[in-house]
Specification:
Oligomer: single chain
Helix content: over 70%
Largest sheet: none
Number of strands: 0
Structural class: mainly alpha
Strand content: under 5%
Number of helices: 20
Low-confidence stretches: none
Order of helices and strands: HHHHHHHHHHHHHHHHHHHH
């Protein structure tokens, strides 16, 4: 049974990724949501033997340490230096907003939510980056599976509401006091191919296979280095060092043009992140988590995460007004930070401004890069 379940852990995410090419509904639901739901089902129907606990822990550790450098390998750090002033300011204001609200929420809910400092670190990671950062920070801080699943479940629910608002109602509302968009702001922006992040078609192409093997080989070397460095530390600090090490080495490797141009490295990284999500969900005791005894925790978690997400959006809008950021720049930077790069084209289409796709994508990919550092730093500051 252990061998069969292990096979499911590695095969199921790949199958869903492949099916998403032909079935758009999978992308609408979200691959990560499907992995979570399947993992919860596997873990709560009593088919996973207790002897698998150590195997599950190993799969989680390996998958996250391979996934992070692969996701970052497609980064282009040198592009940041060519970022337009407006894009840079909008990025800083968005990050500052979520940090401020996380600090405020930590003060308000410190006595009501256990280990809130870890949740705060995860919130920073998922807001600035995405699921990959959330998973990495959870692993680095030693977050319990149930708390991780609860945090991401509530964040996904509230985040979906915010995304719908950004698509349908944000521009008419915030456009009343934020200035209109100027088309001259991005005349010299570097081109970014959106399909590099949102499509899995090239990932499953035979032409991509040699490059993906090369990327995987680099990721394995980075994994070995990060794992080796973590051996000099103990406890949660070892996990933290491992995560920050592979993040740094992944960014360093992205500076090598032959590695940075590998097609599908981002998707391969996300495959390992989905494996992590499937495994961690299968370890969560959801019956106990949503029991009457845990109702207070669930309520306070929803209030805290709602405060962070909605509060940071409002603070970001206020700061954008002060710094004269346009309404379209504000909306697209909020989307890129809170929902990750693949959602940028969707919102750009909704606000009828394709010019903001490139700066939005730049903000999103920078978020992937800085999310782990910032999340871990804020978590230990609040510890």
């Amino acid at each position: 049974m252990s061998a069969l379940i292990t096979a499911v852990y590695f095969l199921f995410p790949g199958l869903i990724m492949f099916q998403s090419i032909r079935r758009p509904i999978i992308n609408r639901i979200g691959i990560v949501v499907i992995c979570y739901a399947t993992g919860i089902l596997i873990g709560n129907v009593n088919i996973v033997p207790a002897s698998m606990n150590e195997i599950q822990g190993s799969i989680m550790g390996i998958s996250i340490l391979l996934g992070i450098p692969l996701v970052l390998l497609s980064e282009n750090v040198l592009r940041w230096a060519r970022m337009a002033k407006t894009t840079f300011i909008s990025l800083l204001l968005g990050v500052l907003s979520v940090v401020v609200l996380v600090l405020i929420g930590n003060v308000v809910f410190r006595e009501r939510i256990p280990e809130i400092w870890k949740i705060s670190g995860m919130m920073i990671g998922v807001y600035t980056g995405g699921t990959a950062n959330l998973a990495a920070i959870a692993q680095g801080l030693g977050v319990e599976e149930e708390l991780y699943i609860l945090t991401h479940t509530v964040e996904v629910f509230i985040g979906a509401i915010v995304l719908l608002f950004l698509i349908a109602g944000a521009k008419p509302l915030f456009g009343r006091f934020l200035r209109p968009h100027s088309s001259t702001a991005y005349s010299d922006q570097t081109f970014i191919n959106v399909t590099d992040y949102e499509s899995y078609e090239a990932f499953f192409s035979r032409k991509s296979f040699p490059g993906l093997l090369k990327a995987l080989g680099v990721a394995l070397l980075i994994f070995g280095a990060g794992f080796g460095l973590s051996g000099f530390f103990s406890g949660d600090r070892a996990d933290t060092v491992a995560i920050l090490s592979v993040t740094t080495l992944g960014l360093a490797a992205s500076l090598i043009p032959s590695l940075n141009r590998i097609k599908g490295s981002f998707q391969l990284g996300m495959y390992f992140i989905y494996v992590f999500c499937l495994v961690v969900a299968s370890k969560a005791d959801m019956a106990g988590l949503f029991s009457k005894g845990s109702l207070d925790l669930l309520t306070n978690m929803m209030l805290y995460i709602a405060l962070v997400i909605f509060g940071s959006l409002l603070l970001h809008a206020l700061l954008s007004w002060i710094f004269r950021i346009s309404v379209d720049d504000f909306i697209i930077s909020s989307t890129a930070l809170s929902n990750s790069p693949p959602f940028v084209p969707v919102v750009a289409a909704a606000i009828r401004n394709k010019e903001v796709v490139v700066p939005g994508m730049i903000i999103g990919v920078i978020g992937y890069a800085i999310g782990n550092y910032l999340g871990v730093a804020v978590a230990y500051l609040l510890r």
